[in-house]
Amino acid sequence: MKIMGIDTKGAAFFCKEGTMVGITELDKEDVLSLLELVIKNDVTLDKCDENHPINNPIEKAIYVELYDALLDLACNKAIYQEEIDIAFNEALEKYCS
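RESULT FIELD:
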């Protein structure tokens, strides 16, 4: 599932309710929705590079920061889930024993 992309004109988009929307329209609820998509699905994201440039510097700054965070979560979600499970079990033992 593609959740972030860059078109051939150098504009950046993200997936909002199944539709690709301009990255500058992103709000906090959209960030939470994207995080949830990454956690629950296998996702793809276009990387901003020489093959996929973003022309607008504001769009590029937003896109690159969000891309880095979502890619980290996508690549490491099993590790993060394991850390959460360990912390939860330790708290359960400490406070419910």
